[in-house]
Amino acid sequence: MSVQRFFIKDSTRKAELDEFLAKELNRAGYSRMELTKTPVGARVVVYAAKPGMVIGRRGQSIRDLTKILEEKFGLENPQISVAAIEVPELDSRVVASQVTAALQRGIHFRRAAYWAVQRVMEAGALGVEITIRGKLTSERSRYEHYRQGYLPRSGDAASKNIRSAVEWIQLKPGILGIHVKILPPGVTFPDKPSIRPPPAVAETPAQVATIPEGEPSPPEEEKKEDADT
Questions:
Q1: Number of C-alpha atoms within 13 angstroms, CB side, residue 59?
Q2: Cβ neighbours of residue 176 under 8 Å, at least 6 residues apart?
Q3: Rounded Cα–Cα distance for residues 178 and 94 (Å)
Q4: I want to staple 120 with a disulfide (CB 3.0 to 4.6 A). Which of 67, 128, 142, 159 is the partner?
Q5: What is the pLDDT of residues 6-54, one digit of tens each?
Q6: What is the largest CA-CA distance in the chain?
Q7: Model confidence pLDDT, tens digit, residues 134-190
Q8: Interior/surface letters 121-135, b for 16+ CB within 10 angstroms, e for the rest
Q9: Domains of the chain
């Protein structure tokens, strides 16, 4: 097998594994997975918002998942570990899954989108955009955007810092697509202006004018000139 075919096969298996885990662990708030090969076997790290649902009661769910990965995907001695997401509201894939779950429960798409935007901004995000496409209110397909905060459109900084995810859901009118973009906190952009505070000026004592001795003060000179006239 050539090197090119090896990497294509490895990337395809990772994509299939990620798609399978996203479907199986949707209720657990699945975000992503990391697959690494070790001398002992394959190590799989699953990032989820609810690790307890991935592990299951007495570890039964994770044992069943390990068996599936070994039989279906051909992983040698898979070792699965679960990591919790610190802030699920800042994970685009988790937010997209929450919106699809709300739509599946029958909640109106605008209400679900506004609810998700509010939660993302309250978590400290700099910006968020949620796009819903499909047959929303009529038989004709269209889309709606829901934005809040600062979210750049293009550039190297935008492609590296914006977290994006896409989910689909099958409803009675048809298939709806949910696209979520989140700009996490702590990101700086060169085009965003910053205002510097003015430099502090040291306060100096007021200068007091002194009049040499023997010279009349200005008011006295004015009085003398008035008397001469």
A1: 7
A2: 103, 109, 132, 133, 134, 135, 136, 168, 169
A3: 12
A4: 128
A5: 778 878 888 888 888 888 888 888 888 888 888 888 888 999 888 888 8
A6: 121
A7: 998 888 889 999 999 988 888 787 788 898 999 988 888 889 999 999 999 888 777
A8: bebebbbbbbbbbbe
A9: 3-85 (3.30.300.20), 89-183 (3.30.1140.32)
**Tokens, residue 208:** 């007091």
Distance, in Å, from the CA atom of 176 to the CA atom of 174, rounded to the nearest integer, reads 7
Q: H-helix or E-strand containing 127?
A: strand 127-134
* Residues with Cβ within 8 Å of residue 100, at least 6 apart in sequence: 167, 168, 169, 178
Our separate counts of H helices and E strands in the chain read: 7, 7
Q: 122 pLDDT exceeds 60?
A: yes
CA 100 – CA 169 distance, rounded (Å): 6
